[in-house]
Amino acid sequence: MSTDYQRAREELGRRLRELRADSPDGRLTGTTLARRLGWPQSKVSKLESGRQTPTADDLRAWAEAVGQPAAFDELRARLKGFESHIRSWRRLLAAGHAPVQETWHALVSESRTLHVWDDHVVNGLLQTADYARSLFASHAGLRRSPQDTEDAVRARMKRQEWLYRPGKQLNLVMWEAALHSRVCAPEVLAAQLDRLLGVVGMDTVHLGIVPLEAPLRVPAGNGFWILDDRLVTVEDWHAELWLDDAETITLYRRAWDTLAESAVYGTDAQQVIARVRRSVKV
What we know:
Blueprint: H1 3-21, H2 30-37, H3 41-49, H4 56-65, H5 72-83, E1 86-88, H6 89-92, H7 97-109, E2 113-118, H8 129-143, H9 149-159, E3 169-175, H10 176-180, H11 186-199, E4 205-210, E5 224-227, E6 231-235, E7 239-243, H12 246-260, E8 264-265, H13 266-279
Parallel strand pairs: 2-3, 3-4
Antiparallel strand pairs: 1-7, 2-5, 4-8, 5-6, 6-7
């Protein structure tokens, strides 16, 4: 877990402890507070020590139980402050993938220019419905999240309308490895590669492919999105990172520019995709 995230969680825990100690009803013990809340005492201890992330409902209940309901707004602001950077998949997917896709739809809709590096699968803005369906199903199985695959697919397909709006630009660089990734049935992958062949040359898409044999000036690293040079998102196994400080955005843009130097474009990109397509036995 990131040091900054953990530090922020510990600071929130200290603030919770202060509120308990300064209760208008007199200093409350952790056991007394747990009894009031109907929680295990261990939960109170974990929240105060920064070993567990509270929900907004937890914070509201805490503020009311210690007799200081007005403190909730401050506590919620602290929570939003550090969760805006590390967004746990456990929390995000509690209601399934479709709500996450709707959030992404809104985020992308308000953006004009995207710079994206994909190293493991085809980008969501260019996925076929069947390819997306395979990915959602596998992630739901891994993360034990609700199975709302069809709703999630529809939301992702809706987001692709962005590509056909004036003034939009997707600058996508993909590692060839993403084209080979057998995350779906062979016939689904073949159709997906055909779709990619068709988008080369679209006015709103600048697609580059980094061949496996191409020299890399930096390691491939995780995939990431840069939205209008105002926000970077990075997906990891446990969480999605949202990074909005100028120094970090500049670093990721420099990484994207460096990876883009190793890519091929236009007909050369089509040749790489076509070569992989021929290798898929349907």
